[in-house]
Structures are given as C-alpha cells and as structure tokens.
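Reply to dn_fold:

You asked what the input looked like. This is it:
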Amino acid sequence: MPAPVDVSSKVLANHRLSDLYNVVELAAPDIGQSSQPGQFVMVKTAIGRTPLLRRPFSVFEVLKDSSGTVTGVSLLSKRVGTVTDELYTLEPGDRLQCLGPLGKPFTIVEPPQRAWLVAGGVGLAPFATLAEQLRTRGTDTTLFYGGRTKSDLYYVELFERLGVEVNLVTEDGSRGHKGRVTEPLEKRLLNSEAHSIMVYACGPTPMMHAVSTLADKVNQQTEVSLEPVMGCGLGGCYSCVVRVVDGGSHFVRSCLEGPVFRSDRLSWSDLI
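and this is what came back:
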C-alpha cells in the first residue's frame, strides 16, 4: 500500500448542505490516486494553530476532472467541535493540511456475493467510494441509510446514479421508513434468500453493534468502520487502541489495523 503523503491542500469548494453538514473538496491528487474505500485522512486548518492535533475524516469522494484525471478528495463533515466548525467556514482558495491516505480499507466483494451498506448520519462518508468500486465490479449493492430526521440524509442521488438500491430511514418518519435503520435491515436479512452477503456498517457504535449482531444471526459477514479518537493516524500516539478477541484478547491501533474491522474481531463490550 502506498505511503501516506502530507500536503497543504487548496480548498476547491465548500458545499454547505445545511447549518450542520458540509462537503469540502480538496486539491490533493496524490492522496486521491492512492485512496481505497474506507481509508481516511488526518486534517487541520494550519500548522501551529489550535487545536494542536489533527482530526480524522473518511475520504468521501475521489474527485476527477472531465478527462478522468484524479484531482483530489472530498470530506463529508458534521459540525460537532472546533475542527468541524473550521471546516464549515472554509472558502475556496483556503488551505488545509491533509495527511493520507491512512488505515485499512474495506474488502471489495464481487458477484455472486452481494453488498449491503448500512450508514447512520455521517457514517455515509466511507460508502461513496465503496459503492463505486462495488458497482464497477458488478456487485449487487444495497444501501440502508438512516438519520434522526430528513435533514440528516444527503447525497442519495449519488448512490442511485451508481445503480445502488437505496432504503431511507428516519426516526421521526420525515423521509422513508419510520424507525431505526436496523429495522428494514433485519427484515431483509431474515427474509433473504440463501445468498452470501457482505454487510458493511458505519455510524454510531451501538448501531454498528446491532448490525453485526443481526448479520451474525444469519451467518453473514460484517465489516465495520470505527470512528475512534485519533491523535496522529500513524500509530505513534496509541490514542486509538481498541480491544480485539482473535487469537486472545489484546489491543490494536485502529489507525493501523483499522479503521475497518471484521466485526467478529472486536470486543464490543469495550466499545459500547
């Protein structure tokens, strides 16, 4: 896997989707060319500024020009703190320190295996590039996408253009099925034919745990993308360790062995 690069990336665009959500496009061709679905970058607005440490963001899209040449990456963000507030206020021409791509990517399955993607809120972020690669291989792909309300759901048309079956869920019923995203997933899993399905999940930890539990009941594999606090993204600070249970219980650094993990490797009692 190519070594990560650290670049001062120019902001190409900042799409403010609402008062909370935005997508920042960055000129980072070297990162875009080597990014794989599920990998992430570590960013901050400038060296020497507060906060001192960078913050991790999944690569949302790999940007290309009209000729198909990779020009950069985009990041899907929700305002929840200092760094995300700064990302929201960026303007074209501003610069962002960007280190990546980092971490272990998703496993890309091919037919006849199916792919079911389960996203909660900004947990959608690693799935745009994943869906694109799955569909390029002809893999039958379904997205279960949930939020508290319709204002938490974005970029649905991106997945529909790829030929992904999209199932929308909101807790208040303002768009799609009313309830939790695991409800239509459970119904489909329990009534699915005896096909091999890879289930991918990203979002709140209790949601990912529930997804993996449902998939285990019907003997389907699950990969989850964790979102732990990270200080460096390179394995040096040990701030992102998670307990795994394969070959005995021990801790691993999620920035190196993750953020994508097989769900059966994880000690969920330590995560939730």
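The chain has two domains: 5-102, 114-227.
Hope that clears it up.
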